Amino acid sequence: MEIKQNVLLANFTTFRIGGPADYFVEVLSQDELIEAITWAKENSQKYIVLGGGSNILVSDEGFRGLVILNNISGYEVLEGRTKSVDSEKSEARFTQVNGNVNLKDLVYDESSLPRVSVKIQSGSDLGVVINELLGKGITGLHWFVGIPGTIGGAVFNNIHCGDFLFSQFIESVEVLDENLNKVIIPADECDFGYDQSRFQKSKEIILSVNFKLYKGDVNKAREFMQKWMVYRVGRYPLPSAGCVFKNIDKETQQKLGIPTPSMGYVIDKMLGLKGKKIGGAKISEKHSAFIVNDGGAKAQDVMNLINLVKSEARKRYNFEPELEIFIVSE
Ligand SMILES: Cc1cc2nc3c(=O)[nH]c(=O)nc-3n(C[C@H](O)[C@H](O)[C@H](O)COP(=O)(O)OP(=O)(O)OC[C@H]3O[C@@H](n4cnc5c(N)ncnc54)[C@H](O)[C@@H]3O)c2cc1C
Q1: Three-state SS for 293?
Q2: Are 255 and 319 spatial neighbours (Cβ–Cβ below 8 Å)?
Q3: Which residues, 6+ apart, have CB-to-CB distance to 255 below 8 Å?
Q4: How many whole angstroms separate alpha carbon 2 and alpha carbon 25?
Q5: Which regions of the chain are under pLDDT 50?
Q6: Ligand 1 center to 316 CA (angstroms)
Q7: Which of 232, 259, 274 is at the close of a domain?
Q8: Rounded to the nearest 5°, which phi and psi values hold at 99?
Q9: Rounded distance, CA 280 to CA 284, Å?
């Protein structure tokens, strides 16, 4: 384990934006992660864990402390440990309907299929895991194809695709608490919701996740993935951090009297800010809830666009857009 100094974080984000971390380390095992955190504590440094860097905006000043890049990967199929947990209390806020593809027409029900439990390490790349599991006849996570990042990052913000939430497939999460104890948290104690989990407040580090997946139809899953990727490519532009704003809740949608809770719709049709550019940052013309780095964007450019959207929404429609991305700053 090598702790480097003054490492530019832009290179570890899909936004390609951000200043340096004072200290930076890549960890490949749980033991190395514990070692890294122990080092930070002993040296009175703050620390954060990064996965794929696809849901963050790092400030131009970077981060004063230790950034731990989580590359702890691998998975284990726990045959015979299948358990049915279907109490999904979360409510997804939108259905993707756009262009020629309606996600609702592509999805199908797998709930009657046999279940299989799989334990996946938190630094595993989501796309790699989806494909490897399909190779073993295991489906379920394929609904999240095309979403960049790691398993840990996906759990942290409980990623969504259409009406699917990541949490629907989670049995339990193994974390490292603030005192470096390993603890297993059952899914119903994770406070999962739309773009929400307890981990955003708890400071626990996600180590591994137990999923309840399906012994499913791999060909059908691959067909879905192909069709959905054709739709996604081009509409989910890079370099970016995905949707900057969350979709609005039902109450706000009713108040605004609009046909969709999509924040992209609000930014485009109601605020007229699609394509708006500040410095090198631009509200995407392909997906108005995305801000793209249009070349040499500073974090401050992105923040200025965020603040513009917020102030216009407040001034003209009296509501407060919520951020979907996480800000990493000094
Ligand atoms: C082109 C594009 C398309 C996208 N499409 C979607 C989409 O369709 N749906 C969707 O929901 N999201 C989407 N996203 C957002 C993003 O990909 C997801 O939120 C992703 O799961 C983030 O994972 P990550 O590993 O990159 O997290 P990071 O960006 O590295 O981290 C995000 C946050 O999670 C924390 N974190 C990461 N790992 C851990 C851990 N092990 N323990 C504790 N905390 C941790 C970090 O500290 C940080 O606060 C998209 C992003 C892009 C760039």
Answers
A1: strand
A2: yes
A3: 319
A4: 6
A5: 82-97
A6: 31
A7: 232
A8: 50, -135
A9: 12
Count of domains for the chain: 3
Structure tokens at 62: 């970077």
Cis peptide before 148 (omega within 30 of 0): no
Residues in CB range of 330: below 8 A, 6 or more apart:
59, 61, 62, 63, 64
> What residue owns the CA closest to ligand 1's atom 10?
159
In a domain, 242, yes or no: no
Whether residues 298 and 159 fall in one domain: no
Q: Which pLDDT score is estimated for 101?
A: 66
Q: Is 238 in the pocket of ligand 1 (CB under 6 A)?
A: yes
Which residue's CA is the closest to the ligand 1 atom numbered 14? 242
Contact between 241 and 14 under an 8 Å Cβ cutoff? The reply is yes
Q: How many Cα neighbours within 13 Å face the side chain of 130?
A: 22
Domain contains 237 = no
According to DSSP H, which parts of 111-217 are helical? 126-135, 151-156, 199-202
Q: Residue 90 has what pLDDT?
A: 38
User: Is the pTM for the entire model greater than 0.90?
Assistant: yes
Identify the three-state secondary structure at position 261. coil
- Nearest protein CA to atom 5 of ligand 1, as residue: 147
- The answer on 134 and 114 residing in a single domain is yes
pLDDT in tens, 228-249: 999 898 899 999 999 999 999 9
CA distance 115 to 139: 10
Structural domain including 98 reads 75-232
CB count in 10 Å sphere of residue 322:
14
pLDDT given for residue 89 in this prediction: 38
